[in-house]
Amino acid sequence: FPVDRIRNFCIIAHIDHGKSTLADRLLEMTGAIAKTDKNKQVLDKLQVERERGITVKAQTASLFYTHHGQQHLLNLIDTPGHVDFSYEVSRSISACQGVLLLVDANQGIQAQTVANFYLAFEAQLTIIPVINKIDLKNADPERVESQIENVFDIPREDCIRISAKLGTNVENVLQAVVERIPPPTAIVHDPFKALVFDSNFDHYRGIVANIAVFAGHVKKGDKIVSAHLGKAYEVNELGLLCPQEHPTQKLFAGQVGYLIAGMKEVKEAQIGDTLYHQDQPVEALPGFKPAKAMVFAGMYPVDQSEYPGLRSAIERLTLNDSSVTVQRDSSLALGAGWRLGFLGLLHMEVFNQRLEQEYNASVIITAPTVPYKAVLSSAKLIKNRRGIQNNMMYVDDHRVMMKYLFPLNEIVMDFYDLLKSLSSGYASFDYENAGYQAADLIKMDILLNGRPVEELTTIVHRARAYSTGKAICERLKDSIPRQMFEIAVQASIGSKIIARETIKAYRKNVLAKCYGGDITRKMKLLKKQAEGKKKMRRIGNVEVPKDVFINVLKRK
Ligand code: GDP
Ligand code: MG
């Protein structure tokens, strides 16, 4: 396929502005999927994405589109919108020459619109502004065009007004992709060189790598080498993603597709790696800046016998989500496990859900913490969260963009939810790392019957130790079921107890009801009780439900 008729682009936007819906329309109009009412977020393939209605993983689709009588190959990459997944966005951008910057005609520019714009701008991509949802009663495309001019310095005439839902003007978007975005500068005659920009573990076929071919071509049977490990492989299968896998004989410079080459282990197909022909070595591509974990949590098998299975599940899932960092760890109460680093709380929840749904693994996650550097010696909402205002800019008459410096631990858990509810959903939020700052912090322990629960130890600001300690004790009291003995729940700083709650004793005998009953019924009930216990964790003599660790630190 001639390189000058290839376009690689992705859609970037704030969450819910309609990326996945636009992707559906583009797939329909180019015949990649049939036109029916059933096409809803076709590229959101993961169960977790369908259940939460959000995109977590970037997905690729190759489309064929005829413009002025010439067939073009358009490679579309759908990207996630939430801050926690901006790592996926920057990876997608590295395989593209242009982006569709999608903005909701009613909501206008939001936090992730700005963050994603800068990712594309810094990568020097062509930016096509698209204003979506013009069918809405309150749509105000004029105002959004002024915002785009003000904030991004893009002329309003460049904007395309569409309704992704109804398909209005979506044809103009396809035309703009062909006319405004340059083809990749790939050289077909040079030696083969490809970037691995994503990879997946398939239970039957091993590792499936998504590649962008930067130079030359690759075909079935070729001997290729991955630059990172220097190991050689034979290509078994390759093809386009349309969006389902569509095997082809060759992949050429400028094309994006998938490749299977007998790679079995996670480290063999690292995202950011370079592939080349065995007899024609090339200089490796720069790869990706490693993601910087913001939130850390311990992860443990519910039962230690599940450790090996959980280890391979975590390895395989981190292949698909390379922004998670993994370190081995162990805890007195929970046994051998790992300490995982995530980009945010939603990222952590999604990872956990994917482990359960895609790998059938059941885990205990401890309360997340943020990194601190310790020195040994011993307006609303914003003021409460120790924020310092930095900078402010008017987007238009109604909307202002404010920048604050915040301690990270004040924002990771629930700041976003609170901000949304205080502003009735109007405010949006994004963050980046501003480095470490000095603060008056102390360590607070939580004790169950006098025994410290290390997973619940937190670092708090001195001024808020009492109220936080009291709130955690109250929540623990509500979430730990009564047991056969009384349980004291305490918060302490050093040896000083600062809060206490008591869980009263209660006796539960599952066999009481079937005294003298038949034995199979007894066995059934005992088995049921044992299954219930699997969801519990024993700390000292206290049984704690496994989700307590994370729920207890969320503020109400
Ligand atoms: P994403 O988070 O950017 O992928 O957004 P989605 O494509 O999931 O869309 C978010 C919501 O907006 C869904 O309920 C869509 O049905 C709706 N939506 C998307 N495009 C339009 C549009 O053009 N008009 C209207 N009225 N709703 C739309
Ligand atoms: Mg989406």
From TrEMBL:
GO terms for biological process: positive regulation of translation; translation. GTP binds at residues 13-20, 78-82, 132-135. Residues 4-185 form the Tr-type G domain. Keywords: GTP-binding, Hydrolase, Membrane, Mitochondrion, Mitochondrion inner membrane, Nucleotide-binding, Protein biosynthesis. The keyword GTP-binding applies. It holds the Pfam family GTP_EFTU. InterPro entries: EF-4, EFG_III/V, EFG_V-like, EFTu-like_2, G_TR_CS, LepA_C_sf, LepA_CTD, LepA_IV. CDD domains: EF4_II (cd03699), EF4_III (cd16260), LepA (cd01890), lepA_C (cd03709). GO terms for cellular component: mitochondrial inner membrane; mitochondrial matrix. It catalyses: GTP + H2O = GDP + phosphate + H(+). GO terms for molecular function: GTP binding; GTPase activity; mitochondrial ribosome binding. It is found in: Mitochondrion inner membrane. It comes from the Eukaryota. It is a peripheral membrane protein. Belongs to the TRAFAC class translation factor GTPase superfamily. Classic translation factor GTPase family. LepA subfamily. HAMAP family: LepA (MF_00071). Promotes mitochondrial protein synthesis. May act as a fidelity factor of the translation reaction, by catalyzing a one-codon backward translocation of tRNAs on improperly translocated ribosomes. Binds to mitochondrial ribosomes in a GTP-dependent manner. This is GTP binding elongation factor GUF1. It comes from Hippocampus comes. The lineage of its organism: Eukaryota, Metazoa, Chordata, Craniata, Vertebrata.
